[in-house]
């Protein structure tokens, strides 16, 4: 079964392709058959002669729209914001078309020191390009608005929409449930309340069932296919809200809070105002979709390059580890990744084979369990190189928070507010916390590194990733932060 967001994107691509095809046909007619451009009037021209050009242009537009983030879910977002994005993408597209058509000729004339006549700058191709661009802007925008008018119509009739839970059978929760029920076009359907008083209160509130307590959230999210949680406790303290977030931060959910409560947690993390409704989204992912795609491409390209050039170093490291105590070369361990997904990481072994015979424990300064070769590998970060395989598989990224073990997560999620929010990011080979702070040796170190991780999450961008990679080179060369 196709998910609603996937269906929305398919319909968007289809609508854009049809709109762009129509605008190409119209531009062709204006140029060759309308007689409006006198020196281009030629009724013998056939559209079939230009079919391939139209197809190439359409594919180029769809690629540009993808990079511009026009294929995200726009159903609950501002129409004005979407139209402005379309305008920006079309303007960029027209500029690129002009560069492709005239760039090579222009550069050739400059190098040949040939004069640029007015026919070159104001020839008949320019009117066609701007007419084509005008049609593209108008038709793409129009088709999108018609598409979303139809989708909102289906929502009003009760088809589609996202399932949400309201945390708190309170007056604020009642107002939210009633407002969403009156406006189904928002695409949010309240399927139930969750409240700690579940055992002693009525099983129905504001015409909506009360489904359970906070501890039931993971089960309820899976059972009812929940996409969002709304925190609506009128008298919640920061501790109460943090206790709620402990249960849901590692789930693939949108987390909203009523404006009256945002002041309780304001300043701890960034929030986004939800369009058309008085809710504040917490832990909103702000990295543009086109940067997300490029980030993954960089992970694969840079990971493959780093893996190839580091092969001689890895070979020497493997020999050194083996010669020191004849134990295994690699050390494998299960770590927790994006949204709590477990995966295996591989490193060069830097500790004795019996390092954790008494159970999992933090590394300490001058840890006696670390071998001589291991100390060098940690100082230079060579021990991390086998994790490139995890980057290529997609379990990790080149840049992100350090992947942690399940046993430590279970402990730290109870001790450190919002620690579990790290699971909303794909772990990284290096990261802002790794280059700014040393290895974890205590809970206090984890608290400090969490602040760096949350800074990275709130400001995630390709530029910040580049900065972190550059600083990683400095850390490797200086040994800064090794333990």
As residue ranges, the low-confidence spans are 262-269
Helical proportion, percent range: 40-55%
Count of helical segments?
17
Give the number of DSSP strands.
12
- State mean pLDDT (0 to 100 scale): 81
Reported for the largest beta sheet, the result is: 8 strands, mixed
Shape: flat
Kindly report how far apart the N and C termini lie: 49 Å
With strands numbered from the N-terminus, the spatial order across the biggest sheet is 3-4-2-1-5-6-8-7
Summarize the helix and strand pattern as letters: HHHHHEHEEEHEHEHEEHHEEHHEHEHHH
Radius of gyration: 28 Å
Structural class determined from secondary elements: alpha/beta
Amount of beta strand: 5-15%
Task: Explain what the structure shows.
The chain contains 17 helices and twelve strands. The longest helix has 33 residues, at 79-111. The protein has 483 residues and is of the alpha/beta class. Helix 11 runs antiparallel to helix 12 (372-380).
């Amino acid at each position: 079964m196709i998910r609603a967001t996937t269906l929305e994107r398919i319909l968007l691509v289809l609508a854009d392709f049809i709109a762009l095809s129509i605008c190409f046909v119209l531009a062709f007619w204006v140029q060759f058959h309308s007689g409006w451009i006198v020196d281009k009037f030629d009724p013998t021209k056939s559209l079939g002669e230009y079919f391939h050009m139209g197809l190439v242009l359409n594919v180029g537009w769809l690629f540009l729209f993808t990079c511009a983030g026009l294929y995200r879910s726009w159903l609950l977002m501002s129409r004005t914001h979407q139209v402005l994005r379309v305008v920006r993408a079309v303007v960029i597209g027209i500029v690129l078309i002009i560069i492709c058509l005239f760039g090579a000729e222009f550069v050739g004339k400059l190098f040949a020191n040939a004069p640029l006549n007015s026919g070159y700058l104001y020839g008949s191709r320019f009117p066609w390009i701007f007419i084509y661009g005008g049609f593209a802007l108008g038709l793409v925008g129009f088709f999108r608005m018609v598409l979303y008018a139809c989708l909102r119509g289906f929502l009003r009739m009760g088809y589609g929409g996202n399932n949400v839970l309201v945390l708190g059978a309170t007056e604020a929760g009642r107002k939210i449930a009633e407002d969403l029920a009156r406006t189904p076009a928002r695409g949010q359907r309240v399927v139930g309340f969750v409240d700690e008083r579940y055992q002693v209160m009525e099983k129905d509130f504001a015409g909506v069932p009360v489904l359970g307590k906070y501890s039931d959230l993971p089960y309820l999210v899976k059972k009812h296919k929940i996409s969002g949680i709304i925190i609506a406790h009128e008298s919640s303290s920061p501790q109460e809200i943090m206790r709620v977030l402990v249960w849901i931060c590692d789930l693939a959910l949108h987390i909203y809070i009523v404006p009256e409560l945002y002041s309780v947690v304001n300043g701890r993390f960034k929030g986004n105002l939800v369009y058309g409704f008085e809710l504040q989204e917490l832990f909103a992912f702000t990295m543009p979709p086109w940067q997300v795609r490029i980030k993954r491409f960089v992970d694969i390209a840079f990971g493959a390059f780093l893996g190839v050039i580091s092969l001689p170093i890895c070979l020497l490291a493997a020999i050194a580890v083996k010669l020191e105590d004849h134990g295994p070369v690699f050390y494998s361990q299960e770590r927790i990744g994006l949204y709590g997904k477990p995966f295996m990481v591989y490193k060069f072994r830097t500790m004795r084979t019996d390092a954790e015979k008494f159970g999992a424990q933090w590394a300490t300064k001058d840890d006696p369990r670390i071998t001589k070769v291991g100390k060098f590998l940690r100082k230079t970060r060579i021990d991390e190189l086998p994790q490139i395989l995890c980057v290529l598989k997609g379990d990790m990224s080149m840049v992100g928070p350090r992947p942690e073990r399940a046993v430590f997560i279970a402990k730290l999620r109870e001790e450190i507010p919002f620690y579990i929010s790290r699971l909303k990011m794909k772990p990284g080979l290096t990261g802002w916390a790794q280059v700014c702070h040393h290895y974890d040796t205590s809970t206090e170190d984890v608290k400090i590194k969490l602040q760096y991780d949350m800074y990275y999450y709130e400001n995630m961008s390709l530029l910040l990733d580049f900065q972190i990679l550059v600083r990683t080179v400095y850390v490797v060369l200086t040994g800064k932060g090794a333990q």
